[in-house]
Structure formats: structure tokens, C-alpha cells
Amino acid sequence: MSTTQPVAIVSGASSGIGRAAALTLAGNGFRVIGTSRHTAKPPPAGEVTYLDLDVTEDDSVATLVAEVIARFGRIDVLVNNAGIGAAGAAEESSVAQARGVFDINVFGIIRMTNAVLPHLRSQGSGRIVNISSVIGIIPQPYMAVYAASKHAVEGYTESLDHEVREYGLRALLVEPAWTSTAFDANSVQPDRPLDVYATHRRIFAEYMADAVESGDDPALVAEAILAAATDTKPRLRYPVGRTARVGTMRRLVPARMFDQQLRKLNRLPA
């Protein structure tokens, strides 16, 4: 079985940004394979095929990619969206917990990319779109492990993009700001909380809940993902919504002033 439609794989497509991206791509001519660890749940409406995938398991990734190629004969776009949030002070997360976050947010991307790249290279075209975050540009207090994972995604993608361009491929970044999803509710909480950080951890939890509630619509992020997948002359980075403004501020505002503003926003002592 094969298709003449371009084929896109979207990981973590059962809700939030992934769901919005899958539906947007499907509505713009793509045959979309949405993945989730729990595809037994009713999939969203639209022309999206749902398959099981656990990005932390090598065999699951290999099986998914082989099935897509067998069923559709091609892969044109990989959207690495599967991810997990993590909150708490840096000292409050064990190495084991940090490893778990990286296994999804970073190594999950690497597993998927390594599995898909040989096919993309052989056909001489394709896009890998990795979902980063404003936190990958501007570290947020009480999100050290998550920030580190998104910084890793930024560096990995930029290096990868240099390596694959000569083969007709691009690796690109979409950088959402706070988005109206279940991000805060699904974030990993520290596995060894300390009383010394309790007050500021609570303040940050309130800040994050408010930021997510008033955050950008996932559809806005989905449009950026579509642009990264289809632009004739794509940019390396696609900042979304408030990320663009914050990124500009960091470049233009003196470092000391920016630092003070970030601490004020998080109600940390000057």
C-alpha cells in the first residue's frame, strides 16, 4: 500500500499541541499518523490514523516507523512533539527522575530521528520538526530539569540541521510559549521535595497554572508546525506567540535588567 499524499508522523498526538498539529496537517493535504501510548482512547475527529508508540522504547519506535513505511510507502515529515513537563527546584529532582524526563524529551527525539532519517535520506527530501519551548531559550526558575531538556533539543536540532541539508532534508524548531494545554497538570513533581524550597515552589506552581490557563491556543502552535513542514524556504526556528516577544527582549534588553525582571516575575529576592 502506498499514497501520493505527503505523510506526516506526529508523536504525542492524543491531546494538546500534538492533536492540534495532527488535525492541521491533515486539513492541509497530509496523510497523518498520530501516535500515543494509549491509542485505545477515542481519537480526535479528522483524517488521522492513530498508532501506538512509546518513544522511550527502541523496539516501539522501530515497529512504528516500519509499519508506516509498509502501509503508506513514504514519510515526509516527522513532528517530534511527545514530551513531559517537570517542575521543582534543581536540587529536588533525583538523577533518576531527571533521566526519565530526558528519556522522553531528548532521547525520544533522538530515537525517532535515527529511525526515520535513513528513509528520508533515501528519498532525498523531508522535514524533522522538533517541538522546543520558550524555556529552551530562557531558563525558568523551578524548571531546571525541563529547561535542560529543551536546551538539549535546541542544540541537537541545530547541529542535525547542518548535517542533513546536503541530503535535501531540514531539521527545524518550533518554540511555543505557555500554551493552553494540560501541561501543568501533567508535569512531573519533584521526587525529593525539600522544605527550604517549598514557598517558592508553591509560588511558581501558581504562576505556571495562571500562565497555562491564559496561554496561547494550541492551534497557533499547529500553524507554526504546518509552516515548518511546508515553507519553501524554512527558518531554523519558529517562535510562537509570546515566545517571539520574549526572545526579542532577551536580545535587546541589558542582561542585568532582564535577570531582575525574571526574578521579579517569579517573586524571587533581588
Characterise this structure.
The structure is a single chain. The protein is of the alpha/beta class and 270 residues long. It has one domain (7-265): Rossmann fold. It has 10 helices and 7 strands. Strands 3-2-1-4-5-6-7 form a 7-stranded parallel beta sheet, with helices on both faces. The protein is globular and about 60 Å long.
**What is the count of DSSP helices, taking H or I runs of 4+ residues?**
10
The ordered H/E elements are EHEEHEHHEHEHHHEHH
Using only C-alpha atoms, the radius of gyration works out to 19 Å
Widest sheet, order of strands: 3-2-1-4-5-6-7
- Total of domains: 1
Supply the helix-strand structural class: alpha/beta
Describe the secondary-structure layout.
Blueprint: E1 7-10, H1 16-26, E2 31-36, E3 48-52, H2 58-72, E4 77-80, H3 95-105, H4 107-123, E5 126-131, H5 144-164, E6 169-175, H6 183-186, H7 198-213, H8 218-230, E7 237-239, H9 242-252, H10 255-265
Parallel strand pairs: 1-2, 1-4, 2-3, 4-5, 5-6, 6-7
Organism: Nocardia aurantia
GO molecular function: oxidoreductase activity
InterPro entries: KR_dom (IPR057326), NAD(P)-bd_dom_sf (IPR036291), SDR_fam (IPR002347), SDR_oxidoreductase (IPR051911)
Quick structural overview:
With 270 residues, this protein is α/β, with parallel strands linked by helices. It contains 10 helices and 7 strands.
